[in-house]
Amino acid sequence: MSTYDSTADTLKHALRVGALMGQPIKELVDRSTRHDLSKTEPPEVDIFNEFTPKLKGSTYGSDEYKRFLAAMGEGLTHHYAHNRHHPEHFGAQGINGMTLVDLIEMLADWKAATERHDDGDLAHSLEIQRERFGISDQLMRILRNTADHFGWSPPGP
């Protein structure tokens, strides 16, 4: 009969997992207070002052929306370069260059962006993003599961 009691090892393991989980939690909290602050300073602020109202009135993914993005030029390029929650930040790697923390901020950003559009819908937006960024079926399922878990969107197929 064994005299080993796993309780101490299990509790030590649980504490270690909690400490490791604290790292991405801290980063998420830090990012939540810094999200998109680059939009409040040059060279971004003037571009976003001009185009945010235009984007709000457009349909996400439409030709009009794409023309607005193209016209944002340097301001949008600067924004992508300084904000890693955008797949464009990672160049050719796109989403494949991101971390789980990046993905969480990205999904929250996409949800909040849909709320700024008159006809915004996260489920529809995710389908557009799938095509735009080459999102795999597995990652798409995870993004939908996460949106559903938090009540951000009805569950997808």
TrEMBL record:
| Top-level division of the source organism's lineage | Bacteria
Name the InterPro entries on file. Answer: DUF5662
Record-given protein name: DUF5662 family protein
